[in-house]
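Recall that a protein's primary structure is simply its ordered list of amino acids. Everything else, from secondary elements to tertiary packing, is in principle encoded there. The following example makes that idea concrete.
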Amino acid sequence: MAKDPSTSASRTASVGKRVRERQQAIARERLTGLADWGKLIQSPRNAWGVLIAIAFAIACTLVVVWARERPLLVIGRVVDETRLVRVPMTSEDKAATDQARAVARQRTPRVFVADTAVLDEIVGSLENLPRTLASADAIDGVDPKIRELYELTAAGLAAIRNEAIEGKPSEFWTQKVRAFADALRKRPLVDEQTWQRTTQDAGFTDLKLVYAGNTEARVLRSEMLNADDKARRGEAMFILARDAGFSGPLRSVVVARVTNDARPTFRYDEQRTRADQDALAAAIRPVILEVPAGSVIVRRGEALSPEQFELYKAELRAHRQQSPAWSIWLQRVGVAGAAGVIALALGGYVALFCPRVRRSEGRMLGVALLLWSTLLLAAFASAASPNLLAIAATAPSLLAGLILCIAYDRRSALAFGVLHAVLVCLALHQGVTLLATIVAGVGAIVWSLRDLRDRGTLVRTSLVSGAIIGAAHAILCLTERPLSEAVLREIYSDAGLAAAGAVIVGGITLFILPTVERLFDITTGMTLIELRDPKHPLLRELQLRAPGTYNHSLTVASIAESAAEAVGADGLLTYVGCLYHDIGKMNKPDYFVENQSPGVNKHDKLSPAMSLLLVVGHVKDGLELARDFNIPRPLHHFIESHHGTTLVEFFFHRARERALNAMRESGEGERDLTTDGDPAFISEERIEVNEPQVPDEFAFRYPGPKPQSREAAILMVCDAVESATRTLSDPTPSRIDALVRSIANKRLMDGQFEDCEITLRDLHLIVESVSRSVASIYHARIAYPGAGPSSRTAEAARA
């Protein structure tokens, strides 16, 4: 049977129309999605979140790129991979250069400075000797000291007197003395210790003598004399005197004068000698070697020597200088891109799975600063001390994970710790060994730190994480590193450093824990346990001024703690929040029924509006007291939200009743507002239209806010249940259960749980737990036979 062409064409047109409509719908959805994203970014909180995420990514990228180009090898440590020269290069042979400079230093002449005073005294005494002895006729007429110094004899005296002309030294004598002085200035006399050190120091042959006016002279080291060696000094002076022209008795006199004076004529100048050595060493040119591409710097399994380390650093510099700029920058862009992706992944995790962080710009900034500062610490510490890489690279990630586990939750801490470990390994050019080590440490912290209620918990966590990270590092290194005795020692040392880092992190966290609580606006279990102590000043004040409210708070806390644990909420936080939720009632305790004496109610004399102000005011008073007593901020929400925006029903109905009674007492109003001639019935719709003095329900509601956490929602239910249960005449379990369910449903229908992450399943579990707890507290009493009312009351009290 042939197909109808018109039918086929219509079907084709229909299909095409549907395809076009679908494409248009997809385009509209995309535009709508873009508009939604635009609206999302326009929100101040979301805009700040985007800016913080971008700034965090840029900051992390800079740290990673900088750290990745640092040389992280350690001299004397066994390397894990062979390093090759990638480009032809010239390298300084530092060992040869240092050796040449050491030889130059050794050959540098030692500098001796003339003692001008001693030399001038010797020369002057010799020049004036003829004048001194010109008047002495006999040896006995000469001063004994002069005779001893010059070893003067009669022949010597006669010879000296012959050198005097008219009582003055002859020109010939003066010339010989000056010649002797010049020779003496070139034969340095030094003390015995200097002479010993100088003669024992090999390598140099010359001495540099410095005189007054910085004039210099060079002499052989052998010309130096020991001033304390009298015999050798005398022989040398004998030769100098002979060469100067002295002979016979005159020569003996001159030699005796210098020999008997044991003072050194020169002193060693260490500072000038060192300056000359540095100058000569600096003048030595470095020894340069040609290193072809492909040359081995160090092989896997070898211990890195100082020369190899210098060659490695030179190769890094040469590679950056000789490689094309585009390849260097392309590599940096790749590293930056990887770091940026990881950093943005951290931001995305916050946006998707960390509502507590996402809701506060301060918390987002705090988390970003914590992760970036610990990354910066790991990078700088590892670059400064590569030999401590095992602790420098692992401890910062453990610190970030531990603080975030305390501040938020274990899932977030694990995610942040793992991504932070990836950033650290990328920055330090490390492989899977370090990554798995850090992940094991963070996992140990998350696993062992369920609830921080005492200092022992933190100590145990640090010890457990230390043991696990040390064992993990050792096991992973055994599978990756080239094994030898030296490597085994390094593995044990690194494992110990990693374990010690975990313990140190625990100690640091314990020390800075109060600061962490303030910065992240959290309250740890340790602080909560301190706050639940009945001796806390604020609780003591509540006990004294409002004992009924205190007992009510204790009961509510007991009921709420069980309910919180039933749904996996924080039971300790709930308990402490319940203890402090009604502290504002202590300012005016007599206006709350639990503190009133039987038959006495001050609200009977007040208008409903005034009573409303007094009742609602306990929320504001409680917040002020919490601030005055430095109660942590997370507990403030329990105070301000335990009534949410619920209706103050008792005083609202009293106000409406008064308004209705006032209308009934008015005749005209009665005719206008009655129905079917029944003055007892008044249409409320007509009241709302015609009588503005009738109170509005909104005016009789608490100001809120509504509960924003499961713990605060549990408090709202338990607070209302505990108060309502007291009104039951026969609190049987069934009646209590019905009451709890009605209150929970009423709060649910009133929209009080809209701002908190509580599910219907959670609400069901809370109702079940609260019903059991309240039934166990307000169980029925046994009426004993024959007992009167008073005795039954006493027996019930004892029961």
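Confidence is low (pLDDT under 50) at residues 30-41, 668-692, 787-799. The chain has three domains: 102-280, 327-522, 528-648+701-791.
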